[in-house]
Design a protein that fits this description.
4 helices, 12 strands, about 45% strand, two-stranded antiparallel sheet
């Protein structure tokens, strides 16, 4: 996904278990009228950890201090993800160094819940619509403290059924930070891109299943850029 920071990937995300596409209709002399659409809804819990990659000094010769680089990356990504005021409150309470080290050891994680629905476009059966909502908690492993909580919305966008044949779809998602315990929380929304992988071995039968053997990627688009990116970042 170029132009974006890879934020996360999670192995058990509650999404579409099986997509079996079809429209049932009745036929008149002049047209086919759709009367029912296939709908798939699933609710599940998921777990995410964060990923911080080591900088490549060969591509960035000016980087001499890896700790400083990680501090900058954590600061940059979480400021955009949570909002500067909210992120500053979390840093003031826990310290940037402590958070950085725990992120590197994957001791800060997200616990979330998701309800996701897919259904055929009522007017164009070659397309389907995916939408959903969810809630998440950012948790500190060592004491199970909840650093913050929030909600997210998966925009109801249209996707061609043919895109499932390639093995993945990309979803637009808006994260809304809702509460930092014992602190004033400032409203902040952040757009994310979710790359969801499918097992399409039965695509000839138009049956697609979420690929539980892969980590599904989450990316934070760079400012002013919505292109795809695999650059190093923060959520694994």
């Amino acid at each position: 996904m170029s132009g974006q920071h890879k934020l996360a990937s999670y192995k058990r995300l509650a999404l579409i278990c099986i997509l079996s596409m079809g429209i049932f209709g009745c036929t008149s002399i002049t047209q086919i009228v759709p009367i029912q659409m296939t709908r798939v809804t699933q609710t599940e819990a998921y777990h995410q950890t964060f990923e911080l990659q080591t900088p490549d000094n060969s591509n960035s010769p000016h980087i001499t201090d890896t700790t400083q680089w990680h501090n900058h990356r954590v600061d940059d990504v979480f400021s955009r993800l949570l909002g500067k005021a909210n992120w500053q409150q979390i840093k003031d309470r826990y310290g940037l160094g402590a958070l950085r080290d725990e992120l590197l050891r994957e001791e800060v994680y997200i616990r979330g819940f998701l309800s996701f629905t897919t259904y055929l476009d009522p007017t164009t059966p070659q397309y389907f619509i995916a939408e959903g909502t969810g809630r998440f908690f950012l948790v500190r492993k060592k004491n199970q403290a909840i650093l913050l909580s929030g909600d997210f919305n998966i925009s109801p966008n249209r996707h061609s059924i043919k895109t499932l044949d390639r093995g993945h779809i990309i979803l637009d998602l808006d994260v809304i930070l809702s509460r930092i315990p014992e602190e004033v929380t400032y409203l902040h929304e952040a757009p994310l891109k979710y790359k969801i992988f499918f097992d399409n071995t039965l695509k000839d039968e138009k049956v697609y299943q979420l690929d539980y053997q892969r980590y599904h990627e989450v990316h934070l688009p760079a400012s002013g850029n919505t292109a795809d990116s695999r650059s190093p970042c923060i959520i694994n």
